[in-house]
Design goal:
The chain has helices at residues 10-24, 34-39, 42-51, 62-70, 85-94, 103-116, 140-149, 171-189, 202-207, 220-223, 340-347, 351-357, and strands at residues 5-9, 29-32, 56-59, 76-79, 98-100, 121-127, 135-136, 154-159, 196-198, 216-218, 241-253, 258-259, 265-266, 271-276, 293-296, 299-302, 312-315, 326-333, 336-338, 363-367. The chain is an alpha/beta fold. It has 2 domains: 10-223, Alanine racemase (TIM Barrel, Alpha-Beta Barrel), CATH 3.20.20; 241-367, Beta Barrel (Lyase, Ornithine Decarboxylase, Chain A, domain 1). A hairpin with a 2-residue loop joins β18 (326-333) and β19. It binds pyridoxal-5'-phosphate (PLP). The site of pyridoxal-5'-phosphate has 11 residues, from α9 and β10.
């Protein structure tokens, strides 16, 4: 198929996993594979990591968990989205773990048990400052007491999520951690037997190792990018995704010729304009055109004018590229490197947004050397 390709280097995924393992020591890694493995392809990502010994995965929806189970991912799977009565029933049969994030969820679980005798595994989510899902800090004690007194709830884990772990100033994250530790003291006081306590994400692994507890939930570092430019870049990461697209035509144009929508780009000399078959509908970020470039034979070539829905133009200068050759749009290969971190900084976004946008007509090709 002619069009953009995401070459997924599973060997780099394994490399990154081993780097993270070195950092966290014996603490098991819960690999976060939601949103199609951050755009990388959840099933091959999970299979590769499972073969490496990963015993915990996290996804966002029940459907994502079902996809992994249907493809022989037998490890534990935690579903991050808010629990609901319908899928709570399926969770037990699929042997996946749900989160309990508000008081009403307890009623759903009690009702499920009374109707069916089913008792899915749950992890209790405490909101320590993200103000998204989670039991409010002030309600933690009463919910823990309810859990202690109800036979219908199988609470295997307790966790929270950082709002700012990847930022240079650790004060808010430290405050969240303090709140979580206070809640863990209540767990001890009530003599609740909860197997897994977890808090760290990629940012915290780099910034706040004291929050690693019994499990770390890692996404971005596995995919080979740092979550922000404010974390210490202390791991040797390799980009897992290499995003490429073919040159489908080239023509010579004169000086002062406008290129693409809006006439935002005007040639400043006689030059070669190539058309690359990848557009914003495939996930390439449109604002990148202003300062963005592609790599071809170790040279940078400026994106010429606005990225269109399905294609984009590139100013190749005096170079006459071969039709059918593929240019590098993001990642690293023989042409050079354009890291997601660099694009993110240039257009004020994050690698999370860049990776999960990759889709459209992009063909994913999985390689392992
Ligand atoms: C609850 C939760 N834990 C962990 C992660 C993983 O974060 P990261 O990719 O920064 O490691 C996410 C990702 O958004 C998340 O929502």
């Amino acid at each position: 198929m002619i069009g953009p390709k995401a070459i997924i280097h599973l060997d780099n995924l394994v490399h990154n996993y081993r780097q993270i393992k070195k950092r966290v020591g014996d603490v098991p890694i819960m690999a976060v594979a939601k949103a199609n493995g951050y755009g990388h392809g959840a099933v091959p990502i999970a299979k590769t990591l499972q073969d490496e010994g990963v015993e915990f995965f996290a996804v966002f929806t029940m459907e994502e968990a079902q996809e992994l189970r249907a493809n022989r991912i037998d490890s534990n799977i935690l579903i991050f989205s808010r629990l609901n009565a319908e899928f709570a029933e399926a969770a037990n049969d699929l042997d996946v773990t749900l989160i309990l994030s508000q008081k009403d969820d307890i009623e759903i679980l009690i009702d499920l048990y009374n109707r069916t005798g089913k008792k899915p595994k749950i992890h209790l989510k405490i909101d320590t400052g993200m103000t998204r899902l989670g039991i409010a800090y002030k309600d933690a004690r009463s919910v823990l007491e309810l859990i202690k007194n109800s036979q219908e709830i199988n609470c295997e884990g307790i966790y929270s999520h950082f709002a700012t772990a990847d930022e240079g100033d650790p004060s808010y994250a430290k405050w969240q951690l303090k709140q979580f530790n206070n809640v863990l003291n209540i767990v001890e006081e009530l003599e609740l037997d909860i197997k897994y306590r977890h808090f760290s994400n990629s940012g915290a692994i780099l910034n706040l190792p004291e929050s690693n507890f019994d499990l770390v939930r890692v996404g971005m570092l596995l995919y080979g990018a740092f979550p922000s430019d404010e974390v210490p870049q202390i791991l040797d990461l390799k980009p897992v995704m290499q995003y490429i697209a073919p040159i489908v035509t080239v023509r010579q144009v004169e000086k002062d010729v406008y290129v693409s929508y809006g006439g935002k780009y005007k040639t400043d000399r006689r030059t070669h304009i190539g058309v690359v078959q990848c557009g914003f509908a495939d996930g390439l970020s449109r604002p990148w055109h202003e300062n963005g470039y592609v790599m071809y034979n170790k040279q940078k070539y400026k994106i010429a004018g606005r990225i269109c829905m399905d294609q984009m133009s590139v100013d190749f200068g005096d170079t006459v590229p071969n039709i059918g050759d593929e240019v590098l749009l993001m990642g690293q290969n023989d042409h050079g490197a354009i890291l997601a971190e660099e694009i993110s900084q240039t257009i004020s976004t994050t690698p999370y947004v860049l990776f999960t946008a990759i889709g459209g007509r992009t063909e994913r090709i999985f390689v392992k050397e």
